Amino acid sequence: MHQFIKPKLFGHAKNHFQKVKDLVRYCSYDQPYDKSEVIWLYGQKRELVDLFNAYKIPQIYHADIAANLVCKSCGNHDFDLHSYIGTEDEKDNQIHIKLVEADRKFKRKIIDLQEYIKFYPSLVLDNPLARKIQKEIESQTLPTCVLEKFDCFRSRIVGDAKVFNSVDLGAPDVGIARIGRYNHPGQSVLYVSESRDCSVAEILDDYHQPALIWVQKYHIDRITNILDLKIDWGGFLNFESVLFTALLNNNVLERRMSKDNSTWKPGYLLTNFVADCAKKAQYSGIRYNSSKYSDSNIVLFDPKHNSIQAVDKPEVFIHDPQPPVVR
């Protein structure tokens, strides 16, 4: 197989390369996507040819320098003059400093808590960090949101010829539900997604494979006091809780779980604890980032809340996504 050999850089070309090689903090492969379009979140988006011109690099060196660049975030090294990269701006620097400080303060304690809760899930409040998590949630200082005139979705895979109704797509009854990210086994809560595509992504092992899907749309008139743990890279800058910054940055609350039949889901023990604290503190639910899609999910602790209304009957649609376009 032919292997591309990067052109070697000498003299002025090498000097110009040194100016820009550390600026490639992110690339297209580091960004989330919605259907087939990249959503640029990380870094200041710039086309390489514009970056080279800004640094007054002679055009004769452009192609060779582009071919030698490597993304600091993911290691991608397939660049040409019209590739887009993400440079680090002052906002990125501030966020990076904040995340490093949060990790310095809490990362080791978070790891210890995750191990502790595996062995003693019913005694988790014996752990000092667990008590701090409960205290922060009950302090009512974390962000909240209101769901008002809000449409959301639930999905299920079409498995046979049965025609589903709204009850089939609703929350499982008490005693039936499996353990979830924010519910213990048997607890009845309603998980919904902010978009149809997000709800589909949540139930599929591979979003890019076609499938037949049942989808139920819901309309929420008004539900207040939702604990808002949805956050993107830029949101860390104004997120005041250092503890929850560390929890979110270390993927503790959003980690993707395997879809096996095991009843032992240790990755959900800490998120179940967070849900217990939130319910005790009178939150109506939790909004959080999807681990599979660019939108967010919401768990509602009272699935029979009178503001939640199914819109018409569930519908079947053919999920046939196009491969993501990465530029």
From TrEMBL:
This is RES domain-containing protein. The lineage of its organism: Bacteria, Pseudomonadati, Bacteroidota, Sphingobacteriia, Sphingobacteriales. It comes from the Bacteria. Pfam families: RES (PF08808). Residues 177-313 form the RES domain.
